[in-house]
Amino acid sequence: MKTVTDLQGNRLYNVADDNFIPPQGQIVVDLMPEEPLTSAELKLIAINGIKEKYEFHRANGWDAYQEFRAIIVLDIASAVITETQAFLIENDLKTGYDRISQNGDWKTAYYELSQVTASYPFIQSYMDISLGIIANYIQNNYDS
């Protein structure tokens, strides 16, 4: 059982799900003791909560990267693109997929990828797919 608190340490409610991600302005702690937490304890709890969120986003980023890579492999196998074109696609989109798969930085990935100009026209559709996937993830998994 976990306790959800506001950032001042006020008890809000309990949750049983160890993977529960609280709304912005709230943190999850182990079942709270009767005495209030110190500000140093609250800060440590908040830091650990943020680290857990980034690990969650990184794991999802790795999955998204693997799925996108599988799409590229299928497109090569179906002769939609050549292997050389796949390398060029990867080169242009690398900045976004590296961010989400290595660090869980989906918002940074979206920003950086949206600044990239596709080197060749055939890359643009893959860029659009990637930006859509990242934007959708941010909308569904970030508080703000």
Task: Walk me through what this model shows.
Strands 2-1-3 form a three-stranded antiparallel beta sheet. 62% of the residues lie in helices and 10% in strands. It has two domains: 2-53, no CATH class; 55-141, no CATH class. The protein is built from four helices and three strands. The protein is mainly alpha-helical. Helix 3 (106-114) runs antiparallel to helix 4 (121-141). The chain has helices at 39-77, 83-103, 106-114, 121-141; strands at residues 2-6, 11-15, 26-30.
> Can you tell me the residue ranges where pLDDT is under 50 for at least 5 consecutive residues?
none
Main beta sheet: 3 strands, antiparallel
Number of strands: 3
Q: What is the H/E order?
A: EEEHHHH
Q: With helices defined by DSSP (H or I, 4 residues minimum), what is the helix count?
A: 4
Distance N to C terminus: 27 Å
Question: How large is the share of residues in beta strands?
Answer: 5-15%
The global form is elongated
Rg, alpha carbons = 20 Å
Structural class: mainly alpha
Q: Please, what is the average pLDDT?
A: 89
